Structure formats: structure tokens, C-alpha cells
Inverse folding.
């Protein structure tokens, strides 16, 4: 791999396939900085003469991290971009040819904000479901007489507190 700079970000490029290795901090800066995104998009012209295809191009392969050698996880960026990248959480991300520019375009089109809003809505929905399930379970338990009345709970807690104080020697 050859070291290259896109804008002010250093990364490594594979001379054979045109893929890019971008370390964690550099990728975070690219995601957050429009100037860095412009640098990525400004160099994202696919040259037809440099296309590499292999007989098993459709086959999923798990690649090792170029830094630690551990197998990387395949992740759909932002869970909805449609761009599947190989990620080593501790070291960086491998982008096949043109994947980095596809992600930058996704970000610029508002994809990250849309993904965040969708995730917030999912969390809120799950929270509401949990509260409804808890209320239903409490109602069932109360109707079966499984929970003592509030004053009985307070008395029981006071007794337990007194026992702990006695055992600890306070």
C-alpha cells in the first residue's frame, strides 16, 4: 500500500484494487468536516482503466486489518447507507474503490442526520413499549396479589434497614 493524502488527511491506498485504508481519527474528521469531504469528492473519479474485477467479485470476504491482522467486521455504514465497509474498531476502516466517496455523498445528502433521527425514534418506541410492558406486568401482579400494599413495603424496607444496621454494628 502507498501512503497518500486526501485534503489534509493521510491514508493508504492499495495500488492493485484502488481501495483505501483510513484510520479511525482521520475518518471521523472526514465525516465531520465539509472541506475534507470536498477533498474526497474532488478525487473520486473512477478511471475505467483501473477497474479490477475478480472471478469471485460477488463473494463476501472478511478481510484482515492491515494494522493488527484481526478479521474486520463488515458494517453497513450508518445502518442504512447501503455501503458495506470493513471496520477494525481500534484501527480504522477499509474502503473498496469509490466507497469512501459514496459515504461522503451519503453524509452530504443528509444521510447521517436521517439515520440519527430514525435511531432516536426507534429508541423512543422501544422505551414506550418497555413502559407499557412494565405497567401490564405490575397490573397482573397486583391483580394476583403478588405485591404487598405500599405501606407493607415501607414497613418491610424499614425492618431490613434496621437489621442491616444491627449486623453492621452502627
Amino acid at each position: 500500500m502507498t501512503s497518500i493524502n486526501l485534503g489534509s488527511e493521510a491514508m493508504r491506498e492499495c495500488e492493485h484494487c484502488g481501495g483505501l485504508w483510513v484510520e479511525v481519527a482521520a475518518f471521523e474528521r472526514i465525516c465531520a468536516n465539509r472541506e475534507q469531504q470536498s477533498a474526497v469528492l474532488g478525487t473520486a473519479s473512477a478511471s475505467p482503466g483501473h477497474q479490477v474485477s475478480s472471478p469471485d467479485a460477488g463473494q463476501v470476504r472478511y478481510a484482515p486489518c492491515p494494522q493488527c491482522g484481526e478479521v474486520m467486521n463488515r458494517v453497513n455504514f450508518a445502518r442504512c447507507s447501503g455501503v458495506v465497509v470493513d471496520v477494525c474498531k481500534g484501527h480504522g476502516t477499509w474502503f473498496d474503490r469509490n466507497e469512501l466517496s459514496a459515504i461522503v455523498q451519503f453524509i452530504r445528502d443528509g444521510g447521517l442526520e436521517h439515520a440519527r433521527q430514525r435511531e432516536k425514534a426507534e429508541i423512543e418506541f422501544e422505551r414506550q413499549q418497555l413502559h407499557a410492558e412494565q405497567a401490564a406486568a405490575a397490573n397482573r401482579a397486583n391483580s394476583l396479589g403478588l405485591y404487598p400494599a405500599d405501606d407493607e413495603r415501607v414497613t418491610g424496607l424499614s425492618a431490613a434497614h434496621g437489621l442491616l444496621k444491627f449486623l453492621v454494628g452502627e
